[in-house]
């Protein structure tokens, strides 16, 4: 066993008054000719002389009673008809017009409401169709990727180990500065870290894989997170690592040095068994630039990245807020 420096983890309006009428005043000459005339408005000249004219008397004939009665009846009928016409014209016709206008407005309103409802329903139907199609596409993709997992892990693994003791992969065994490290105990390979915001990697020094399936059973016995490393270079501290936390968070990173990393995937995953002493099966499928992620044999995400194409596999423990120990068993690799 040798001392080995730990690696730091990477996290976060006045109406005018009309003029008064002006009185017309008679002149002195007019007053001398007509002393009884005072001020007047409608004329200014004397009246013409009166001519005597005798109107002959007209002999008036009295109408018989029946004629008077007939005229009275006709007069009453005329007045009544006029009143009825006035009522009809003044009340009946406007009422008909009101009824017609009301019917027209109601018809227009009904048509507008119907058209608006049809338009809204069309939008709803279109949205529902798009949502249904998108959901169906996601489900089809997940089903296809689940099928890839089932197929890829159906054959005989290229490498497998119970991780109860050292094997052909030549796992790193060392004491980390500040406590923890990589060691075999109780039939498992442990990765342990006791410095906050640091992580400890345990590389399989004799391994080298490009396209592959890498799977391992992981149990957090204390602390925060564990995970798997792939396509790594332990000497340059460059690799991908898939972190799984006891809080149900999973994340994929590409490290570039001891103090730099790039997040490729981050999500809360329902399939993770949360808490301490819960065993989760963690799997990655790396094929060219495509990296697919699985937990407990269920697809959880996928990303594309070309940073690394091949390298070592490994295991790790990460201390975010608590000292962490993770036990690993049953590692398997299928080369693709």
UniProtKB/TrEMBL annotation:
Organism: Ktedonospora formicarum
One GO molecular-function entry: hydrolase activity
Record-given protein name: 3-keto-alpha-glucoside-1,2-lyase/3-keto-2-hydroxy-glucal hydratase domain-containing protein
Boundaries of every 3-keto-alpha-glucoside-1,2-lyase/3-keto-2-hydroxy-glucal hydratase domain copy: 166-330
TM helices/strands, residue ranges: 65-87
Keywords: Membrane, Transmembrane, Transmembrane helix
Superkingdom of origin organism: Bacteria
Region spans: Disordered: 1-24
Entries under InterPro entries matching the protein: AL/BT2_dom
Keyword Transmembrane helix (UniProt): yes
Gene3D superfamilies: Exo-inulinase, domain 1
């Amino acid at each position: 066993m040798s001392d080995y420096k730990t690696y730091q983890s990477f996290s976060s309006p006045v109406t005018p008054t009309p003029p008064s009428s002006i009185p017309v005043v008679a002149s002195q000459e007019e007053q001398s000719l007509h002393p009884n005339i005072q001020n007047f408005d409608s004329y200014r000249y004397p009246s013409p002389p009166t001519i005597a004219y005798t109107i002959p008397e007209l002999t008036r004939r009295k109408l018989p009673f029946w004629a008077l009665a007939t005229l009275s009846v006709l007069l009453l009928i005329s007045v009544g008809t006029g009143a009825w016409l006035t009522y009809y014209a003044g009340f009946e016709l406007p009422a008909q017009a009101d009824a017609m206008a009301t019917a027209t407005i109601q018809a227009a309103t009904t048509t507008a409401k119907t058209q608006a409802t049809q338009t809204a329903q069309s939008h709803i139907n279109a949205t529902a169709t798009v949502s249904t199609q998108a959901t169906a596409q996601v489900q089809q993709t997940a089903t296809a990727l689940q099928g890839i997992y089932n197929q890829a892990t159906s054959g005989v693994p290229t490498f497998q180990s119970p991780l109860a003791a050292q094997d052909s992969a030549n796992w790193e065994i060392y004491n980390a500065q500040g406590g923890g490290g990589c060691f075999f105990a109780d039939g498992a390979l442990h990765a342990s870290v006791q410095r906050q915001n640091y992580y400890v990697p345990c590389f399989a020094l004799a391994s080298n894989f490009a396209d592959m399936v890498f799977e391992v059973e992981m149990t957090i016995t204390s602390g925060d997170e564990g995970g798997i490393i792939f396509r790594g270079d332990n000497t340059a501290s460059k690799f991908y690592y898939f972190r799984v936390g006891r809080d149900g968070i999973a994340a994929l990173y590409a490290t570039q040095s001891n103090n730099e990393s790039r997040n490729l995937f981050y999500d809360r995953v329902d399939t993770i068994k949360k808490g301490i002493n819960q065993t989760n099966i963690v799997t990655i499928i790396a094929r060219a630039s495509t990296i697919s992620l699985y937990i407990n044999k269920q697809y959880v995400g996928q990303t594309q990245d070309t940073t690394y194409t091949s390298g070592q596999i490994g295991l790790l423990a990460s201390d975010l807020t608590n000292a962490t120990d993770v036990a690993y068993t049953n590692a398997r690799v299928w080369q693709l």
